[in-house]
């Protein structure tokens, strides 16, 4: 998801948090009428370090919180030092491939002066200590992990180091100022040495310092160094456990038959054949997302549950629900585009009529599924008394998901514990404001308990369930009319965007939908170029669940902006790089630095390309980071081929260059995937037509081009990099193909030759 500092004022957060609590708390709790923040934080941790054999967190009832410090500032929830010197860091984000499982411990270990070879990491939970320290909610999104927790984890490490120094000073009866630390040891003025593990218990008993002095970045030993991920070996060897791998004593597995149209309900059920399958324990009706109804088969493993579902005979009632058809939807969007609507920008575009050059363009972008390698899953364990719940899943929003579970199961929010698991991808699908699949899993567990199955239940979606399950990147239509002169000076740009709002009806609507315009739909429009633009936006309501998808609005706005700017450069016979730099004017130094770095490293303009190849260029900012691509492409046997990509990146300080390179490459690969024929979700009579990788195309290894990533040096605090590598890839490739064919590309995916 995309939440920028300037679009989410801090003073709006308490109200938003209250809205979250009111929406998801059980009706019989105080939260239903407005839960106070102190109640929301009832799970809070307090005091000291968690060292040696001490518990992970001390409840607010057991110890007083140090004055002036928030739960997010206390080392106790984030750091565990074993007596043998091992350091275990808890991360406050979900790692689903982006590398925070390593980068966040690197930041803390840097200030702690830990021995990196003894450092490991674990995921956190829905404990209030693990909220985003800036936004105050549990969230992994908006490429904000490094951006918003960089200072936090530095301070956590520095506080812990100060406590260890104080413990050593007491032991040796010396001034703490005479001590220093090095690779997990405190060293005294007379050469004394004590490992962190030896000092752990004594340090845990000391006060947590409110103010700490951070290292000079010039002295960094870990931050900025290419570092192998802590989870690399387990993932490469297949030993890494994910949410789908959770196994609990007595656990059963559930598979749900969903209605074929979103919101459909069951008319009739014949479950005799399903119940006859060995291992099937129950077949039950359960609620599904958007007011729908489904049937769950609960069994002693996934395969019998899946077989049971396949054996069901179902008759669906689809009356009263909209049956979306992609072809009809495009016609409707075109009609909307010609009508007045809310405006993001409202420049005078009267100069269009007299412009010597004009472009009239229509762009089409389909629905896109997230399609992570690990399909959605959630394991639910209800306590014997029914008054407490534990969840195991890879969640980007464990606090919100925990409150949703509380609502469904009728328990107090502070009686829900979310154990965040490593996730095999997600790209936004594990951060759903409606908590759709968590609500479904809890409904399944509730139905199972009512049927006498008082055991943990793991709900698993198949790949087909996942791809057909909704919450897609919205379908969008763009129309543009642009007027410009012989020198490429743009005199008027009249633009319309039509697409569903991903925030309408969500807790984020109140502060991220302004004047009827979803801010995520228009991000990336206009900037960094000095353009007189009139931008009109329409958000139709459609019976297709939509959500943020990696890089959110920039998935379509970057393509439109960068291909149109390139087309103006071609029309006026200007170099596309020089034209962009001129169009930026005197500002945007980070855009210029990233673009010029990519140009320099690629050899653009300095070397001759092989016959049949062309250069393509694009630059785009998202999540406060800028990525520029210079690509080499060709058309072979009628098919577009991407040969080489050179990236110029400006994201300020890089914590782990190895992870940054992987993130840029991974984002670019998803951007490449948007271009491939078959990379689209379409609907016919309300039914999603795709179901697996055989008919929903994703990029494969042979399609990955040669790739080089170069970073603009900076010592400023890091900005986001989980998503910015995606948006400029498709337009850079399309621009190269347009130079080869002479025809601009107006839609994604690219059309079959």
TrEMBL record:
Pfam families on file: MoCoBD_1 (PF02738), MoCoBD_2 (PF20256)
Gene3D superfamilies: Aldehyde oxidase/xanthine dehydrogenase, a/b hammerhead, Aldehyde oxidase/xanthine dehydrogenase, molybdopterin binding domain
Domain of life assignment: Bacteria
Domain Aldehyde oxidase/xanthine dehydrogenase a/b hammerhead: 237-320
InterPro entries from the UniProt entry: Ald_Oxase/Xan_DH_a/b, AldOxase/xan_DH_MoCoBD1, AldOxase/xan_DH_MoCoBD2, AldOxase/xan_DH_Mopterin-bd_sf, N-heterocyclic_Hydroxylase, OxRdtase_Mopterin-bd_su_IorB, TAT_signal
Listed PANTHER family: ALDEHYDE DEHYDROGENASE
Protein name according to UniProt: Xanthine dehydrogenase family protein molybdopterin-binding subunit
Source organism of the structure: Leptothrix discophora
Taxon lineage: Bacteria, Pseudomonadati, Pseudomonadota, Betaproteobacteria, Burkholderiales
